[in-house]
Design goal:
Rhodopsin domain-containing protein, about 0% strand, SAT4-like, Rhodopsin_dom_fungi, about 65% helix, two-stranded antiparallel ribbon, membrane, transmembrane, about 400 residues, mainly alpha
Length: about 400
């Protein structure tokens, strides 16, 4: 329908299923959860390695983009809800500033789409780098890894490139006319929504192939297999959210005969993009720990437990007061727990038992433990020149050593 000034068209809206207060509540809830998840991840990583990895910096960039979309939504989502109120027939919200405010809301929506898609792509690259560290010794793993990386980057760029940003960054005379409200324009929006969800879900599924290859060639305990099954279920949840984001658009863009179709609710699309990015971010913070994929030697664990008990007895005898107890708790409990989660012990036997792995050349370094006498014992056949030399070295002197004058 057209308003009374300028012949501008306000399309009916469909699937407006979230209120503004609920949007803001969920918005800041995920900001708090994602920020806390990243801080815990960085704390564990720094305690274990005393440095951050490339994945941690990538996740920091993704967190900045995630929280930036939340701030933009807080400032401008109200203009989108006002626009959708008019699209539902409530023209009491239309005033002299209506279209200017709508343009601000649409520009904010376009900006968050770019930030969200870019942030999700960065999270996926974080997954890929992490799995490459673990499975780089497997045959054909690098070939599969590079193929998935190219697909992820290509689909991320295509999702941004296929969006019709003229209908969010142009002026009111272009957006609220047939340029963005015709059946052809709506059909294009529908195709873009389905394409975005399809390639996004496909890239998530391809990323799952990498840990599947690793676990297929690994021998780990049943408890970790169950835990990894739960983690992979979280990734499947991300795929489900992506599919839901695309499927809610199907009936909105359908037309029957001469009946005019409806536009997808911008607030609803905004909401599902935000849910997808938040879910992907949280799953990435949970999965990126090597201990899920490694097998720890039980004897090494027992040695660590003995060492911890000795340190506890020693420090409890030397320190008193709540500050000392807090520091001891941090050093002996939190730090060791972080290393257990991260899988980065310095004195334990921790391996990923892989089959069909690439051959690793022997080290050229001499590894001799001078504190272990067993390294020096060697069975020498009797009667050989080497055994005779050893026997000569063991002879006692027949005369006393000469005394100094």
């Amino acid at each position: 329908m057209a308003d009374e000034t300028g012949g501008r068209i306000i399309q009916p809206v469909g699937h407006s299923s979230i209120t503004e207060p609920a949007f803001h509540a969920i918005n800041w809830l995920f900001v708090a959860i994602c920020t806390l998840a990243y801080l815990v991840r960085v704390y564990i990583r720094y305690v274990s390695f005393r440095k951050l990895t490339v994945e941690d910096w990538l996740m920091l960039v993704a967190l900045v983009m995630h929280n930036a979309t939340a701030i933009i939504a807080q400032l401008f989502i109200r203009h989108i809800f006002v626009l959708e109120a008019a699209e539902r027939g409530d023209y009491s919200v239309v005033d002299e500033h209506f279209f200017d405010n709508c343009l601000r809301g649409l520009k904010a929506f376009g900006s968050t789409m770019v930030l969200t898609i870019t942030g999700i792509t960065i999270v996926k690259v974080n997954f890929l780098i992490f799995f490459r560290r673990i499975g780089r010794e497997l045959r054909w793993f690098s070939v599969v890894w590079w193929g998935v990386l190219i697909f992820v980057l290509g689909t991320g760029a295509s999702q941004i490139g296929m969006h019709d940003f003229k209908c969010v960054f142009s002026d009111a005379d272009y957006i609220f006319t047939l340029n963005c409200t015709s059946n052809e324009a709506r059909a294009k929006n529908y195709f873009n929504a389905i394409f975005s969800a399809a390639v996004d879900a496909t890239s998530d599924a391809l990323i799952l192939v990498l840990p599947t290859i690793i676990l297929w060639h690994a021998r780990i305990e049943r408890r970790k297999k169950i835990l990894l099954g739960f983690v992979f279920g979280l990734v499947a949840l991300t795929i489900g959210v992506t599919i839901t984001r695309g499927s809610v658009s199907h009936d909105v863009y359908q037309t029957r005969g001469d009946e005019q179709g409806k536009e997808q609710s911008i607030s609803w699309t905004w909401f599902w993009f935000y849910i997808e990015s938040s879910t992907a971010y949280l799953v990435a913070c949970i999965v990126n720990f090597r201990t899920l994929f490694v097998q720890r030697n039980n004897m090494s664990r027992e040695r660590n437990e003995v060492r911890l008990r000795r340190e506890q007895l020693h420090r409890s005898a030397l320190r008193r007061g709540w500050l000392a107890k807090a520091k001891f708790y941090h050093d002996s409990v939190l730090v060791e727990t972080c290393k257990e989660i991260e899988g980065s012990w310095s004195d334990t036997d921790e391996t990923l038992h892989l089959e069909n792995r690439l051959p690793v050349p022997a080290s050229g370094l001499m590894t001799v433990d001078f504190g272990n006498d067993e390294n020096w014992s060697k069975a020498v056949p009797p009667g050989t020149a080497q055994s005779q030399a050893i026997s000569l070295q063991s002879l006692e002197p027949t005369h006393a050593p000469r005394q100094g004058v």
